[in-house]
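Collaborator request log, item 7. Partner lab (contact: R.S.) asked for a structural prediction of SnoaL-like domain-containing protein to inform their binding assays.
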Amino acid sequence: MTDGTAAQQLRTLIKQRVQAIAARDAQYLADVQADDVLAYKVLPPLRLRGSNQVAEQTRAWFDGYAHGPGYEVHDLQIEVDGNVGSTAFLYHVTGTCTRVTRSPCGCEPHPSGNAPTAVGRSCTITNQFLGTP
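Returned to partner:
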């Protein structure tokens, strides 16, 4: 696989992530992650282990929105070296929360964010780090 092909796979993965969030498809978002993915978040619980925990938090995040979430990716950066690649990006989340209170990150809990990614025959998210300004 060339670096250009791998970079395109990662662009496609991020595009599909945006589409899955728009469709509120927590199962798709879990399926593209390694079974033992390690995710760090800005809101408790701060660390999740495994795609099942991430899927549970993703469903809870979706349930926090009466409308949305809208999810836009900006400034996508892709790095590829052989069969390993990573992505980093800024994202903008919009929507109407079902709760009165909002965190700086949106409607809690908030499982979306940067997705360093392993590249091979198919892309699998192995680590995920989240942040807010």
